[in-house]
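re: that complex we talked abt at group meeting.

here r the seqs, copy pasted straight from the sheet so there may be weird spacing, ignore it
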Amino acid sequence: MSRLRRWGVLLGAFLVVGLVGWWGLPRLRPHVFHGMVMQSPERAPDFTLTDHTGRSVSLHDFRGKLVLLYFGYTFCPDVCPTTMAELAKAMDLLGKKADQVQVIMISVDPARDTPEKLAEYVTHFHPSFLGLTGTPDEIAQIAALYGIFYEKQEGTEATGYLVNHTATVTVIDRKGYVRLIFPFGTSAEAIADDLAYLLR
Amino acid sequence: MVDSLAHVPGGHLLNGRGLLYGLVALVAGGILAFATLQPVKVMPRVRLAPGFLLVDQDGQRLTSEDLRGQIVLYSFLYTRCHSPDCDYIIETLRTVQDRLAEMDLGDTPVTLITISFDPERDTPDVLRAYAQSVGADPQRWRFATGDPKRLKYIIGGGFEVYYKANEDGTFTFDPTFILVDGWGIIRAEYRYQTLVPDTERILRHIGVVLKEVRNSKGAARFAYEAAHLFLCYAH
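got the structure back, here u go
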């Protein structure tokens, strides 16, 4: 082997390793989630409620899809529309993969959130979003299980009463386990990034 | 230099494939070393702790949202309980309270909350008197109760602790401690006695969670998330 050829081989080797490293290392690195990762050894608590079309739906109906669970209400002045808009944007960012994601908003104000109101509200953000409601007791029980606290609070005459509530988004994976918690204020990009990874 | 290496056995390592294998071996070795040596230990994120609204021994509202950012050790009993189980719960909590007072907890508050599942008899006044009688430091250890139906959702449903009222006014229940982090996520449950006393395990686990809160920022967060990924769990 000539000296020149050997140098050529060496240079080629460095190029190959460099390219493979440049392409492969970011892929070898485990995905760092934006949301808080859970390692639940048990499935997320199941529930059955009424959706915004009046149909009875259960969490297990969505096995095989990622479920993003949010607790809110249609009269919510600020926090809920912000979150719902970010979730809608995350759906757009996911493109075709969005078919495998179901966003569900459970009403913490069942007295005012009729199925009709919910239908108008959730589909305004995204046609695939589902709004669920039930009896105050059913909702209290489900909310408690998902770490959600809520209570009525006096509002102004224009808004009526408000409902203070925990504003996190819970991600349930395709097998039915709670996988991620997004705090309020997580961006659509961050949410889409994590969901795309879970759907890889 | 290159010349001489290319002629010795093993000189083939200098070709591209050798270097690639080396790189892969290095990464695989690194992952293996991390997973086996477990330089960072964490407590698993078991499940969500329930959301709640309770009333404490001073008649103040106590919600799960008020406790965000705090590490909380939950326990459950009724104050008229005189069984060895209740003595054990109180003794354990008292020891944890005293030992926490000597530990460096940094900026993270660590709180003990004992929830009574007998709201009919355990009014705030009764809880306050009971707290004093067992030597609870009101800054650290709070007692609370709430609406009976909601309590069932919170204690039975959320914390998965069994309790049942008996006809003679006593309760049958499973003594349990539950450790929850500042995110409202259950990090450890103490339902069975092991060779290591509960006080020791609880204090060690509080230490592990505190360390994670303190250290998992910036680049170190990566190591902590990797520890969760590779199940480097503290015992």
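couple things i noticed - The CA atoms of residues 70 and 182 of chain B lie 5 Å apart. Chain B touches chain A through 40 residues (CB under 8 Å).
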